[in-house]
Amino acid sequence: MLLLAIIGWIALALLVWTHAGYPLLAFLWSRVAPRRIDARDILPRVALIIAAHNEADVIEAKLDNALALSYPPERLRIIVASDASDDGTDDLVLRYASRGVELVRAERGGKVHAQDTAVRMLGGAAEVLAFSDANCAWQPDALTRLVRPLADARVAYVCGRLTLRRADGTNREGAYWRFEVALRGWEAKMQSVTGGNGSIYAVRSDAYAFVDPRFGHDLSFPYLMVKQGSIATYAPDAIASEKPTTDLGDEFQRKIRMFGHCWLIVFHGRMFSLRQLGPVYWLEMISHRLLRYASGLLHVILLLASSVLAIAAGGAWWAILGAQGALLGLAALSRLTGSRLRIPALAQYYVLITAATLIALWEAIFRGITPVWERPTGTR
C-alpha cells in the first residue's frame, strides 16, 4: 500500500502543479524578473501566407481583411496556400490577382505541407513569414504589431493574441482559452512561449523550419527556435479573432486531433532536451506541455489509487476520491441536462478535454496521425 500511496500522491502533485502551481510560478516570475524584449516599429518585407482547404465560404472575407491591413502594400505579399481545394476556393482567390493576391496550389498533404510549398516558392524573397488561417480576422494594425518584437535580433518567432467570439452552443473553450492566453504572456516574460496558435504568428524567414507535417507549427516552432538559441515570444497587441467550434462534442473531436499531434511531437520531436533548452525553458516545457498532455493518464492513476486507498487506509483518500467523484458528477449533470450553468459546464469541458488526451495517445500509438485536416464544425 505504501508504494500505491506514493504513486497516488505523485499523480496528485503533478496535476496540481501543471494546472495551478506552474501558472502561479509563471505569473510571479513575470512580475518579479520579467524578460525584456526590444520591440519597436519596423517594416520588414513580409509574406502573409494563408492556409486554406475548401474555404470558399470565408476566403473572400479573409482576403478583404488581409488587404485592409495597415501595412505598406509594397512591403507585403499576400499568398493563399491551397491544400488541393476543390470547392471553388482557388477560383475565388484568382479573382484577387489584380489586387496582388497570389495563389500557390499544393497537393493534398495538410496545412504544414501547403505552407511549406508557399515558403519554397518564395525562395527567401521575404524577410518575415507571417501565417494565418482562412477563418480568422486580423485587426488592421495586427501585422504591424506582430513584427515589432522582431526588431530584437534575439527573437525569431512571434505569436499574436487570438480572441474567440462567443460560441453558438455549449462549448466552453473561451474560458480555457482566456487562461491559456494569460499563461502565454507570463511564459514570454519567463523565457519563451511554449506554444503559439495557427491564426496569427510570424517567423524570420531564415529561421523557418521544415518540420514533419504531422507536427504543426503551433507547438514545434517555439521550442525549435529556443533550441537554435533564439527567443519565441508573444505580442498581445497583435490581435486576431475567430469563432470557436459550436458545441462541446465538436471541440472534443478537435482536441483529440490536436493532442494526437502533440503526442507525436513528444515521441518524435525531441522537445525535452535539457542541454539544448536550458533549465528555465525546460521547466516550462515539462510543466505546461508534457504534464498537460499527460493529465488523462495522471487522472486515471489517481482515480485507481484513491479508490483502493480510500477503502484500505481512509483519511484524506476519501476526500481525494470524493473530489474526483464530484468533478465527474458535475460533468455528467451538465451532459445529461444540457445545463448552461457555468460550473457544471466547465467541469464537463475539463473532463472531456482530459479524456481527449487519452484517446489521442491511443491513436498516436496504435492508429497513427494524419497531417491532413478537415474544417471543424461551426467555426466558419
In the CATH scheme, the class of the domain at 46-248 would be Alpha Beta
Regions with little confidence, pLDDT below 50 for 5+ residues: none
Give the mean pLDDT: 91
Percent helix: 40-55%
- The CATH architecture name of the domain at 46-248 reads Alpha-Beta Complex
Compute the number of helices: 13
Describe this structure in words.
The chain has 380 residues and is of the alpha/beta class. 52% of the residues lie in helices and 14% in strands. It has helices spanning 2-32, 59-67, 89-94, 111-122, 142-146, 173-190, 217-227, 248-268, 274-277, 279-293, 295-312, 316-337, 342-367, and strands at residues 46-52, 76-83, 101-106, 128-133, 137-138, 155-164, 201-204, 231-242. It has an eight-stranded mixed β-sheet with strand order 3-2-1-4-7-6-8-5, sandwiched between helices. Strand 2 (76-83), helix 3 and strand 3 form a beta-alpha-beta unit. The longest helix is centred in the first third of the chain and has 31 residues, at 2-32. The protein is globular. The mean pLDDT is 91.
Quick recap:
The protein is an alpha/beta fold and 380 residues long.
